[in-house]
Amino acid sequence: MTNQPSDVTTASNRLKATWSGSGEEVVVLSHGFGSDQTSWEYIRPVLDANFRVLSYNLAGCGDHGEASYDFHLHSSLFGYADDLLALIAEQQVSRVHYVGHSVSGMIGMIAAVARPELFDRLVLLQPSPCYLNDPATSYVGGFEQNDLNALYDAMAINYQSWAAGFVPMVMGLAAQDSLAHFSATLFKIRPDIAQHILRMIFQSDHRSLVPRVTTHTRLIHSRKDVAVPVDVAHWLHAHMPGSVSEVLELEGHLPHITQPEIVASAVLRHLLDR
Fold first, then answer.
1. Minimal CA–CA distance to 65: which of 77, 54, 56?
2. CB count in 10 Å sphere of residue 85
3. pLDDT at position 174, please?
């Protein structure tokens, strides 16, 4: 771990920035909803052997995550992208590779559109620009608004009961260790913050931004994912010039936790392929 600035208001301290690994090139790891940076521990050793690796917690996530969360700033993914850019600036890194899971896929795209000179490559795991189906454009995002409204109501009525059903649904597999890990990080998020984050994610639509990404991008999706159907993988690849898309024969929204060996190999291959 690198020495962090003493000022608690810095992005590095607010977001618990952590360094590992060795090498000349830097990889930034950014996790998805319900997780924190520990979600990368299953594939991180493979990356550490080839790169200097910087991870952090998204605002609101991890231990004492409420201290990093601002209901106004983080009411859109642009606030999270600002956090990412501030973190890279504080660490005095001139250029990075970026690996983002789920919502962090769009966070990385937004940041790369704003500051393309900072990003050598994006490797995005399970990203989606829009989670709602849009019949007008034949876009399949995976959810209807009524489904999401029911989800929000369930979170508000009984957060623990909602989480008990949400965790195995998105994991896709019944591996107890994986379920326990995701449950532990999900319950670290204060319920009102979790509701605010999830509603913001599911109601967002960043499809118009996708064609503006000029950074070399690799897209990795599971064949079966209740949160991000494979139709999204095809849409992203078709609307992102120069992108490379790989659909892995895996199930679940968090394959870097449930099937880490396969995902680690794919991520490393896409980072090293020139």
1. 56
2. 17
3. 59
d(CA 146, CA 263): 33
Can you give the pLDDT at residue 8?
53
- The whole-number mean pLDDT for each consecutive block of 10 residues of the chain, a chain of 274 residues, reads 51 96 96 97 96 98 96 97 97 96 98 98 98 97 96 94 90 77 94 97 98 98 95 98 95 94 97 88
Could you give the CA distance from residue 9 to residue 217 in angstroms, rounded to a whole number?
A: 32
Q: Closest by alpha carbon to 93, among 2, 31, 6, 196? A: 2
Phi, psi at residue 184, to the nearest 5°? -65, -45
CB atoms within 10 A of CB 147: 13
What gap in Å lies between CA 93 and CA 148, rounded to an integer? 39
Annotated catalytic sites, by residue? 102, 225, 253
* Nearest alpha-carbon partner for 267 in 103, 45, 109: 45
Strand order of the β-sheet with 18-21 is 18-21, 52-56, 26-30, 96-101, 119-125, 216-224, 244-251
Identify the pLDDT of residue 110: 98
Alpha carbons 169 and 226: distance in angstroms, whole number: 7
Which pLDDT value is given to residue 172? 82
* 193: number of Cβ within 10 Å: 18
20: tokens are 């590992």
> CB of 119 within 8 A of CB of 111?
yes
